Amino acid sequence: MKIIRKQYTVKGLKINILGIKISIPKNSWLFPIISKPRVSVIVPVYNVAQYLEECLDSIVNQNFVRMQIICINDGSTDNSLEILKKYRKKDKRIKIINQRNQGLSAARNAGLKYIKGKYVIFIDSDDKIKNGAFDKLTEYMNKTKADFCIFDYNILKNGKYIHSKSCREFYQKKQNEIFSYKDICDKVFFRFSVWQKIFRASFLKENEMCFPIGKLYEDVIFHVKSIVKASRISIYNEKFYCYRMDNPSSIMNTSKNSKKNIHIIDAIDMCYDFLKQENVFTELKPQFCSFVVRETSCYLRASSPDIKKLLAQKIMDWFDTHNDVKNVIITEEQYSEYVCLLKEALE
What we know:
This protein has helices spanning 31-34, 49-60, 80-90, 104-112, 133-144, 167-171, 201-206, 218-229, 251-254, 263-277, 281-302, 305-320, 323-331, 336-346; strands spanning 4-9, 12-17, 20-25, 39-45, 67-74, 94-99, 119-122, 128-129, 148-157, 160-162, 197-200, 233-244. By secondary structure, it is of the alpha/beta class. The termini are far apart.
């Protein structure tokens, strides 16, 4: 006979101790002490007061209660911290970490140090998550024993939702199908965002997963590492996440036509080193070369002449120290247009 019985409800936790019934609501200070979270939600916060309440509401109002909500205030100068404190008063599952402004990678890394859940989800503070997501995803992860699961998302731009290709369409995989990078080699260098995935916490810890500090495109190496390291990957065909593209202060919008675009070379370099280290570079070389061309040509075309020239020079400098990539891109006919783009940018 069990002395203590626990039952989680949408309102919190019910405990039966030898017939004595105790209810602990999810907003009680006791709840995070007595309950064991299934999901750790990491929310980096920097000057997003306009969107933060909508984001937090989408998390705390989930029917799923067994969560730990780790909010990292990355040196916000607006009233984001005050909003976090207000929500913390109402919901003790929220943990606030304050740090000086160090960027998205450092904020996420700080959150990873405090995870207690079996699973981890990253949510950007100007985005939101659909109700029911945590219930379905944790049940699915428990069933599939996946290292991580990729799910569908909506794109919100100018108040309208934009269709994005579903996981089933993109990966050509069925729900409940387990696969590894070897089964999707042509898709490894796509869909880098960590916010469209739920990870098994032990997988992240075992592989010492973290984000590169002080760099943009931080999701790229995290994604490539996780997809190569994972032996069990799955998909869930439901649009759980809402990604906002119309936040004018987001990193993606403020870095357009900026010298920060040069950071894409750092992301490429980190991926190259990792693939070599894991002895999978030869296997993924064609896909990696296509990735290099696709990503850098995008920024070359979008940049002003002075930044374009600087970026092109950085690309050529990187090629000069990575002949195995350079020889493919410079000599293969499929990349001739790209080579012309580089030459024009350097003139």
